[in-house]
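Q: Could you fold this chain for me?
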Amino acid sequence: MASTLPFEKLSRDDQIKRLYEEGLFVVGIRYYGYKVNLFLLGTEYFEVFINHKKACIERIGRLDTQHSRMKFYADQVRLPHL
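A: Sure. Below is the predicted structure, expressed as structure tokens.
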């Protein structure tokens, strides 16, 4: 059962669980020292920053459509106009 809490209010573990169980994996990119997995959850996109050297998730956040990372996504998939 999905939580009624806003995504940002969930614990890191619950955010991860929700994305991986309820979200749709879109694409993974390499961005500096990270592997960044992009997920679609409902109508919103979220990025999961994985530090592969430390083997841990360092950050989860909503996709910033103004960030330069968008060009990396655009090279691999066609996202709807955000």
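A (continued): Residues 12-22 form the longest helix (11 residues).
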